[in-house]
Structures
1.
Amino acid sequence: MGPVDEGEKGTGGAAEGPGRGSDFLQLDIGDAPAGGKAEWLARRLRQAIADGRLAVDSRLPPTRVLAAELRVSRGVVTEAYRRLAEDGHVQGRRRGGTVVVAAPSPLPAPPPAGASRPPVPAAAGDAVTPAALFPGSPGAEIFEALRDVRARVDFTPGRPDLAAFPRASWLRAERAVLAELSAEHLGYGDPRGAPQLRRAVAGWLARGRGIRVGPEEVLIVAGTAQALTLLNPVLLADGIDRVAVEDPGSLGTRQHLLHGGLATPPVPVDEDGVRVGELRRTGARAALLTPAHQFPTGVVTSGGRRRELLRWAGDGGLIVEDDYDAEHRYDRPPVPALRALLADRVCYAGSVSKLLAPALRIGWLVPPPRYRDALVEAKRFTDLGNAVLPQLVLARLMDSGELERHLRQLRARHRRRRDAMIGAIAEHLPGAVVHGAAAGLHLTVTYPPEVPDTALAAAALARGVKCQPLSWHRQLPGRPGLVLGYAATPAGAIAEGVAALGAALRELA
Ligand SMILES: Cc1ncc(COP(=O)(O)O)c(C=O)c1O
């Protein structure tokens, strides 16, 4: 039977991941020669089957989905699948979609085995004034303090649309997992994570981020936060006591490094990404970076800068790659993770916090081989491993294709909200500049006149709108701005919230 295209319903026919759309194998149609797209696609798929990114038994995305993703006609994808079927690599399975049945060459063998700032006053209900919530130097409690404050419109960055959490799918998957679960599964699990989830994550990373790893290289953790907490002592034991960070860069992740006793020298970010010359000048042997979508500026590390970074890493540097929201992209082709290019020098961290919900506290760490054992030990002594049941449910959602379907829905919804925010900014914040809106769940806006962003955020909160000042995420001086999450807010509320920001700015100017 030739390739078929009925993979929309996860029928569980294929053992490995479903290989549906989103960021599929990092394919960029811009690389295809005009007039030769089907052959180009077939060649890229053959390569992926040969090198194990598309494992035997995994399902190719439905042709409709991949065609939409690549912005080609469906005929191009159908023709590519037909060629693969012709040379025996894939087979159509009616309701199971098109499945990889043979690799052209053997699959690769798995590789061998500081003090935080002073705290802000605790949020005590209405007693805390908006100004007190936006100090110039926020402490570790700041995020909880701000979360406790109710606001009419919440632009806190870093949250997907939590109202869209796929409750029905989760329940269905949990019921199925419980029905199949043996009693042993309810005992202590593998501290590295449930094998099912490590396998599913390896497939997810191969398809979506271009990372080729075996399940034994994946460590399941309680989010990027725990990944950093586990990593800190391992780095210190390796003689690394400073981790350079982007500037501006995430206050939250920097706080985790500081808490672990690591210094965080800042390195400026420009429109190509982090400045590698300045990174070298810090003398730090490690850097925490967000290359796919820099937090908070949204810059995508350019090709030239990626090569410079890889040279720095090749000279002995370690990149801690925080891939916090790379799945959410709108107007740009996917960029592969740095971990896909330099496995020995990149420690990769990701999580479901932006994909499903931060409350799940599930993430993954793919460390360089030399740190793996120490990290497994750190995880074992921290908590003996993540809770097993949610891991099995997540593995099932990944394997059945439901997670990718959810991601596609989220993307469409988030894109509408992003567009609504950009439109509202043009209307209510004239002269403001929007940064980094091509991907992610937030954008950053800088504005004239340059009133302090902490004052603007406080004035906005007084008008019922919550957001974060850009200066919180800076160690070096720089322009004021606001970091505005749009993904969790409906378009109408976005317009209302941005109008209030405009009014707050006019009041302060
Ligand atoms: C830059 C950055 N990295 C990582 C995370 C996610 O952390 P976790 O996976 O622990 O939820 C966030 C959350 O907002 C973030 O902003």
Note: The first strand starts at residue 90 and ends at 93.
2.
Amino acid sequence: MTTPTGADRRRGPFAEGDRVQLTDPKGRLHTITLTPGKQFHTHRGHLTHDALIGSPDGSTVTNTAGVEYLALRPLLSDWVMSMPRGAAVVYPKDAGQIVQMADIFPGATVVEAGVGSGALSMSLLRAVGEHGRVLSFERREDFADIARANARDFFGGDHPAWSVSVGDLVEALPGAVDDGGVDRVVLDMLAPWECLDVVSAALAPGGVLICYVATATQLSKVAEAMRDHGTFTEPQAWESLVRGWHLEGLAVRPQHRMHGHTGFLVTTRRLAPGTTPPLRKRRPGKGYVTSEEAGEGDWTPENVGERVPSDKKVRKVRRSVTGTSDPS
Ligand SMILES: C[S@@+](CC[C@H](N)C(=O)[O-])C[C@H]1O[C@@H](n2cnc3c(N)ncnc32)[C@H](O)[C@@H]1O
């Protein structure tokens, strides 16, 4: 049975047109699209696609030089890491966090911008399912074309829940959705703070906004803008670090290399219209100043949250390490 979200393409024996990932004995990956009569060549022999068509997912196949390959259908996480890219993609570890922490649920109406290469869109589409809606906005037509092609390849056709509009979110969103008609908004773009007015109008009360930003300066700016807007709850921010493990005999340890940085996530929720954000229990310290407002003299240890030792404490430590309060 053909399913509109491509579930039928993810199970059963390999068929013509399936994308298959081959892993060689050294762990190198090669992705092929199964085509009757075609051959997969390397500098060490070749194998026919026909040898794989009809075999179960997870089979091995041996080429003419006796090299064995493991054949598996790529998972979504494999797919997004190997598919053609225009813009940088949201990595699977962050896409997983976004789906969970923005509470993307089956049947939800989700707005996304920008689309880039469509990696995150695919995770959102999977989470909303065929009865949800993902309305994606992308400024660049060329990127939107790449994203559409990537998703079409992955799902085996146009996902029924997806629409991609070319245009700037700030201009395009108000005409595309009813006020309060959107459950979740996901922003992966340079300047998400520019979109807060239209996002606030579109989100249903209690709806979630999540932003993925690459730098601490963007994080600071968007968090301050969320606070200043007055229609959102106190923002929450975090990052996730995933460290792979090497598993070989007794050498079971963290891998030496990892992606040390991808981006930061920050979420907030839409307050009911007319509700003002409740006062924070922990008030910002005296001298609190936003990075926007900060002048030269504002970059003090206190304002950046450093614990400043008293002069008395420093004198005491100095005495204890030098034996005198004035060693010079
Ligand atoms: C890093 S990419 C998004 C990658 C995407 N999330 C993925 O996983 O493949 C950021 C995209 O946002 C688009 N963009 C930036 N500001 C925008 C705006 N205001 N409205 C629509 N698209 C925007 C850019 O053109 C760019 O393609």
Note: The pocket of S-adenosylmethionine is lined by residues 87-90, 113-114, 116-120, 137-140, 143, 168-170, 188-190 (CB under 6 Å).
